[in-house]
Amino acid sequence: MLIGTNQKIVEILGVKCKPIPDTDNYYAGIDGFIYSTCGKQPRKLKGNMNSKGYLRVVIKGKPKFVHHLVALAWLGKRPSKKHQCCHTNDIKIHNQPDNLHYGLAGFLGDHLHTLKNGRITTLKWTNAFDAWFKNKKEEVISDNGWLNNDTKN
After folding, report:
1. Which whole-number Å values give the CA distances from 38 to 11, 26, 65, 82, in the listed order?
2. pLDDT at residue 129 is higher than 70
3. Radius of gyration over alpha carbons of the chain, in Å?
4. CA pair distance 43, 27, nearest whole angstrom
5. Is the model's pTM score more than 0.90?
6. Three-class secondary structure of residue 16 per DSSP
């Protein structure tokens, strides 16, 4: 078990994977891809990109966002309906579990986490990387006052 859920980790095509809840024979890999064991041989689903740049795969005849499936398997269910699955580095095709988190979009609350990439989100971390990011936040706060717009020429 690596992050968030207590689902058993299995290896498919040499990749550590967790089963996706409410699906049969579909798994989310730690590499950010979706795997199927429905046929004779396990396979990595190719999927396609929608007009906004997010990867989607078809499961049981319905298109699903890859980042939602990976987050569901590795991080667990969303804390509330207001939470969204967000990419920490804002690159929509990087769907690895350590790059995903659940956040409340549209709030200016926690700007320290968003200064680096300009995303406006109040982050509610639900994964095992919480302590690491809290330490980084403290480093940013003590970074010689650059947050206070001190410009010394």
Report:
1. 15, 8, 19, 33
2. no
3. 18
4. 10
5. no
6. strand
Return d(Cα 64, Cα 113) in angstroms, integer: 28
Report the candidate in 124, 76, 121 with the shortest Cα–Cα distance to residue 97. Answer: 76
Give the DSSP H or E segment for 46: none
Structure-block tokens of residue 117: 């990439």
CA distance 27 to 71: 11
pLDDT tens, residue by residue, 28-82: 999 999 999 998 999 999 999 999 999 999 998 999 999 999 999 999 998 888 8
- Tokens coding 66: 């890859």
Residue type, 136: K
Which residue stretches of the chain are H helix? 66-74, 130-141
Q: Residue 105 forms beta bridges with which residues? A: 121
In this structure, the number of other CB atoms found within 10 A of the CB of residue 103 comes to 26
